[in-house]
Amino acid sequence: MKHWWLVTLSIFGLSGCVGYGGVFHETVYTVYPQAEQPGRFATDSYRPPVINSLKPTFRWRPVNEPQGPDDRYDILIHEAYRNSTVEWAIGREVYYRLGLDASEHTLEIQLEPNRAYYWAVRIRRDEKPTSEWSRFVYLRGCTFLGSACSTEDFPFFLFITPAR
Known about the structure:
Elements: H1 4-15, E1 20-26, E2 28-32, E3 57-62, E4 72-82, E5 88-100, E6 104-106, E7 116-124, E8 135-142, E9 150-154, E10 157-160
Antiparallel strand pairs: 1-8, 2-3, 3-6, 4-5, 4-7, 7-10, 8-9
């Protein structure tokens, strides 16, 4: 076969690698804390990042369009807890700010140590409706042509605070 390398490349290009995992973002990409785990073969359930502060500075950037001069952001934080060995549930709202003019925000409150939280951002643009709250889908264990992918669909981004 004259173009065996093209056929091989096409198969691997369509299928990805065995054990591939990744994150699909909607609305914004997380900059800190990061939702994705680059270079990791995702075969286990999603492990949220442990951040380094109880008053963190969150950073993000829009997915589809560059940040405009009149863009405004809303940020929301909820407690999170495990309702099974693989699922995280949304608890009470602990923080909400709207109309932020930068794509980063330092919390004005201190979070509880060693606790899980969800955070989300939405974008307000002048001539467009307010976006949906940010969310992501975590892919793990994808094989040939995505036939055996497992997903975890998160309503918001998840993180854990440090012990102290």
